[in-house]
Design the sequence.
């Protein structure tokens, strides 16, 4: 333990400081009101006076002015200044169409897909090329390679749906649960009960 009066170190179980003779319990009670330095050691009265003097002096004016100039310059460079070399051409985005609206049913070995929107569904870029992707039960896939015109019904043989390993969808083995249609217009998910 360090005495706050004289600064001498001594064992913590001592009742009096061997340097100045002050009672240890007195400065332990007063230590609650004293400030600590960065290492957590209580400051002596001299150190506290020095700290108070430094706080009274404050930050020099030239440092404050320099800080203000840096802040204003950074704000100007970030938010106000717009150099011509940084300008990029603005791309005009097409208005987003509403979600795909489809009617799908299974009938006599065929999946019948009807485009209920008032616009054509267009192919989307897939790993198979440009196509409208139809997927059964998140496993069996079919890629339709053209547009699906508005109001038209398209019949796709159920055996055309296959996994990547070549396994075909067989209605006798697998149950129809969900069909997912993905085109450039969005995604339509339909569930079977």
Sequence:
């Amino acid at each position: 333990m360090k005495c706050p009066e004289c600064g001498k170190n001594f064992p913590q179980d001592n009742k009096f400081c061997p340097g100045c003779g002050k009672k240890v319990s007195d400065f332990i009670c007063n230590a609650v009101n004293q400030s600590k330095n960065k290492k957590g050691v209580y400051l002596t009265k001299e150190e506290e006076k020095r700290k108070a003097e430094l706080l009274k002096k404050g930050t020099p004016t030239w440092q404050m002015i320099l800080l203000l100039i840096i802040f204003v310059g950074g704000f100007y460079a970030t938010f106000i200044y717009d150099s011509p070399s940084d300008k990029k051409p603005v791309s005009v985005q097409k208005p987003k169409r509403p979600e795909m609206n489809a009617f799908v049913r299974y009938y006599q070995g065929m999946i019948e897909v009807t485009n209920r929107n008032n616009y054509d569904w267009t192919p989307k870029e897939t790993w198979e090329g440009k196509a409208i992707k139809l997927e059964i039960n998140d496993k069996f896939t079919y890629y339709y390679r053209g547009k699906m015109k508005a109001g038209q019904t398209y019949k796709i043989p159920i055996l055309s749906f296959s996994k990547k390993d070549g396994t075909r969808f067989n209605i006798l083995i697998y149950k129809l649960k969900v069909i997912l249609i993905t085109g450039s217009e969005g995604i339509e998910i339909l569930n079977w009960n």
About this structure: The mean pLDDT is 76. DSSP finds three helices and eight strands in the chain.
